[in-house]
Amino acid sequence: MSRIHSAFASDKAFIPFITGGDPDLETTEKVLYALTEAGADMIEIGIPFSDPVAEGPVIEAADERALKAGCTVDKLFDLVGRVRADISIPILFMTYYNPIFAYGVDKFTTKCAGCGIDGLIVPDLPFEERDELLGPCASGGLALISLIAPTSEQRIANIAKNSEGFLYCVSSLGVTGERSALGENARRMVEQAKRAGDIPCAVGFGISTPEQAREMAAFADGVIIGSAIVRIIAEHGRACVEPVRQFAKTIKTALSLKGETIDEITASAAGMRKLEEFIRYSNEEAP
User: What are the structural domains of the chain?
Assistant: First the structure.
């Protein structure tokens, strides 16, 4: 069983996303350990890109900060290679096709496999045009994760039947970002995919609270949370590690609790807010 399949084996998978190199590579490394210790089942690292067409303002700003701080693809390869000895959960790269093409497809996938990456998510690569990456990914033992969206409609069955690793289900139209409410689109997509193929389905785009995570996990195999975590990193900078850890624990608790135990989640969320207020106050008072 691959590491990706193992992530879905026992419970609902919590899959956090962070932008590599935001605010710097040293902090990214610390955040990777914090997320793992908090119970993440898989981690997505976004490779910063100057034209992130699927991203909302939070992640777009993170890309800009990371690039300005000097983050490069090679530095992220080195970072993953360093942490891989201590982090056993799957690590994925989320990137647009242009950086892969510019680096060289074969060279990029070989480096991914060499440093311990488990799979790739390429949001601007249509499913029907994925063949140019499938071969190199297969040679390196990398899963090429497919995405479906509310507009996929009749394509969902075919994508579900022919995908690997897990299916990334985009919960709503538009770019990434936190949303106050999530509709029934995600539920319908997951149900349609499950009828077509036996592949884990993880829902992303817009999930930002424990309650939303539980709502999605009621019918999906996992939840992907990005903008909410990237926002915490943006607010706290290099002091973000503990706030990210606490937020991740809150989400993991929400996914793990059984029955009517939402009060425990609320208590954890209240504690998270108090911690954020304390850190913000401390930063304001620092010389």
Answer: 3-285 (3.20.20.70)
